[in-house]
Write a structure and sequence with these properties.
Blueprint (H helix, E strand, L loop, with lengths): L4 E6 L4 H12 L4 E8 L7 E4 L2 E4 L1 E2 L10 E4 L3 H13 L3 E4 L15 H4 L9 E3 L3 H17 L1 E10 L6 H15 L31 H14 L5 E8 L6 E9 L5 H9 L4 E3 L11 H4 L5 E8 L6 E8 L3 H14 L1
Parallel strand pairs: 1-2, 1-6, 2-5, 6-7, 7-8, 9-10, 12-13
Antiparallel strand pairs: 3-4, 9-11, 11-14, 13-14
Helix pairs in contact: 1-9, 4-6, 4-7
Length: about 325
Amino acid sequence: MSSNLHVAIVGATGAVGVELMKTLTKRKFPVGKLTLLASARSAGKTMEFQGEKIAVQELREDSFAGVDVALFSAGASISKKFAPFAVQAGAVVVDNSSAYRADESVPLVIPEINGDDIRKNRGIIANPNCTTAITLMGLWPLHKAFGVKRVIAASYQAVSGTGAQAIEELRKQVHEITSEREITRKVYPHQIAFNVLPHVDSFLESGYTKEEMKMQNEGRRIMHLPDFRASVTCVRVPVYRAHSVAVNAEFEQPVSVEQAREAISKAPGIKLVDNPAKNEYPLPLNVAEKDDCEIGRIRVDCALDNGLAFWIAGDQLLKGAALNAVQIAELI
C-alpha cells in the first residue's frame, strides 16, 4: 500500500472520530495527509495527530478533492448527503452510520468474517452496528464449527454508544444522587444512573426497536446466511464504555464446550476469558480501549437443542466502530 494516502475523517470531533485518529496511529496506517471535517460550529478547532496540530474544516460538498479514503462517522443523514460527493471525487468511503447498511449494493463488512465482500464495492463500504459486530466476533467461529440457526440475546450497552452528552449525563446524575440533589435528564427518557433502560433506538410497530432488528438483518448479510434469525432485547446500562451481550445460540450440529473453546481460540480478534472458578469472565471495564473482544461463560444451553450460551464484551468505539473501519481501510 502507498505510504502517502490522503485520509479524511468526517465527524472528526466526535467520540468515534477521536478513536479513528488514535487507531490510525496505533495500526501504523499509511497516512500521508489527514483532513479533519466536521460541522460549521467545530470548524477552526485544532486536533493533534502524530504530534501535528490539524485545523478542523467545515464539511462541504467540495471537501474531498484528492482524498483516497474517507472515514465517515457523523450520522446517517450526513453520510447520505456527503458520501456520494466523496465517491465522485475518487475516494473510497467507509461509513460508520446506518445509512448504507441495508443497501444490497453496498458491502457490509467485518474483516475477520467477510473481508472479501469489499471487492464488490462501488465506492462505499458500510461498517456494521456496534452490538452486531461485537456479537458476531464470537458467533462466527462457533457458526463455522456448528452452523448457527438462530440466537436469542440481550445486550448491555454503554452510554458512550449514544455519544458524549450521554457520558456527561451519567456522570452528572451520579453526582446529583450522591449529593442528594434533584436528577436532571436530557439525553434519555429516564434516569440512567443506577438504572437500566430496555430501550435503545426507536420502536417499530412489531414492538422491537430498530437496534434490536439490526443483529438479524445485518447478521444475514455479513455471514451470508439469509435464514439467520435473532430475537434481541437491547438494554442501555450505566456503564461508560464497552458493550456486553448475553447470547443463547442454537446450531445445526451437536455442540460441545471443548469444541467451542477450540474454535474461539483459533479465531482472530476474539479472546477466550472463561474461568468461572477464578471469577474470570469478560467485563466491560477490562475490554474498554482494547482491540479484541472477549468471550466467556460458555456452556451447553439447557433449554435449546444443540445450544450454547455465552457472554461477550467488546469496546463499541473500537471493534464496534473505529477499529473495524480502519481494518476495512487496510483491506482497501
